[in-house]
Amino acid sequence: MKKIVLLLFVTFLSINAKAQTAKISLTAKKIKKSLYLRLDNKDILRYGTKAEEINQKTPKTKTFASNNESITIYIKPLNPITKEITVNNKTIENTNFKESQEVLSQIISTINKTGQLSLKANPNPNQNKLTFNDIVDKTVIHINQINYDNYQNIIDSIETNIGKLKKIVSIKSKTLNKNNNLNSNLLEWYKATKNYEKEVEIIVIIKNYYDQLKTWTEKMSKNNFDELQPVDDLAKDSIKVVEISISDRILEYDASKKVLSLKKQEKPITENILNFEKFSRFIPEVVPAIVYTDLSFPQYGTETNDNDEQILVKTDDKSFNKINVGLMVNFNYNMGYDEFIPFFQIGAGPTKKFPILFSGVGMRLNNRFMISGGTAWTWINELSSLNVGDVISGTAEIENDQAFKFRTTPKFYFSLQIKI
Q: How far is residue 339's CA from residue 342's CA, in Å, rounded to a whole number?
């Protein structure tokens, strides 16, 4: 029986590595086949399980669990000019929480934007006096400030500014005529303005940005989503990791050199780790426990009778410490959140001489503190062939005759556990 108790300990310890991932699994958000993301106007990445309900703020690291073998991630289209997304996929072994944290921990940061651009319907009467550089500067500001709320007004403004820039160059180069009007092909118009190559190049670049933004706004108006690389082959022995980094790109204009440049900012505005794992209803977790129980074990000894012989006698029962240490394995019921988690548990007492088996139920609080209670079962070291009053040679004969026998009447136990 001692071997059985020791085997229980070895078994518990052998699953300890996997059990340490319980914190990830217990806080996992259960999803079906799709996950939707969007970057809001404050550069916070939000998620949802439905396209029309993407409201939850994504923490630095978030775990999702699914019964399906693959997950498709959709993201609301990002501004193709001022935002750059990087996505890395990898698979890690589902071993323990500490290792996962070391590999996956990253810092989320947000950069405050300058605020939304306010556009008015009535044009400035002095706009016609703006120089080429003034209009380019204004267009650059518009592109840098475009977001989900103001994109339609800014798109219209950029289109207007392109027309103004073309008009300025056409007037300066004296090429504005019936065969080369403002609506002519940009390449043909470029050939007709050879003395203003840099200005025309700027207009061509802005027109290219305009076309990209126009496509982006059409996606937005139709509520379309871009699809990221799918997460495939979900299994219980591994975790699929999707690292998402989104950075700002700032459009800058050097008026003296007439050069437009798009610069990626060194510090990402948001970095998020999305973990995907196979959903498990019960998550095992090994924890040490402080256990209260009231148990006793029979004790035997010897005394000398009238014939000066040693006889076997029963002595006072050995009381087991009411407060002691045990090792428990909790099977947490995975409900997708970690405030209150029910579990059932089995465990073993820490001593070879007085083996104890615990079985009960409990509640996990705040992901670290656990309380539980149930029945404590013991094996009693009883006599096999000897009886009280038998003449024996000494205590060695008693020990050799004893064998563990299961006590069918259990005792109650109460346990406190803290996950360190």
A: 10
pLDDT band at 104 (very low <50, low <70, confident <90, very high): very low
Q: What is the pLDDT of residues 259-274, one digit of tens each?
A: 888 888 889 999 999 9
The token pair that represents 7 in the structure block: 């085997």
The two tokens of residue 241 are 């990791």
Could you tell me the strand order of the sheet in which 34-39 lies? 56-57, 45-48, 34-39, 72-75, 226-227
Neighbours of 74 (CB within 10 A): 17
End-to-end Cα separation, the chain, in angstroms:
31
**In whole numbers, what is the pLDDT of the chain averaged over residues?**
75
What the block records as the tokens of 155 is 């798109």
Structure tokens at 72: 């498709």
pLDDT bucket at 47, cuts 50 / 70 / 90: very high
The arithmetic mean of pLDDT across residues 16-43, rounded, is 70
Closest alpha carbon to 352 in 61, 120, 9 = 9
Contact 73, 227 (CB under 8 A): yes
For residue 75, CA distances in Å to 35, 144, 195 come to: 8, 21, 44
For strands 356-365 and 369-383, give the pairing: antiparallel
Q: What is the DSSP letter of 58?
A: P
State the burial class of residue 353 (Cβ atoms within 10 Å of its Cβ: 0-12, 13-18, 19+).
exposed
CB count within 10 Å of CB 338 equals: 19
Tokens of 118: 């306010």
Cα 312 vs. chain centroid, distance in angstroms?
Answer: 65
Which range in 183-192, 349-358, 379-388 is most confidently predicted, on average pLDDT?
379-388
Mean pLDDT of 306-310: 79
Q: Quote the CA–CA distance of 418 and 316 in Å, as a whole number.
A: 35
Fill in the DSSP letter of residue 77.
P
> Tell me, what DSSP letter sits at residue 75?
E
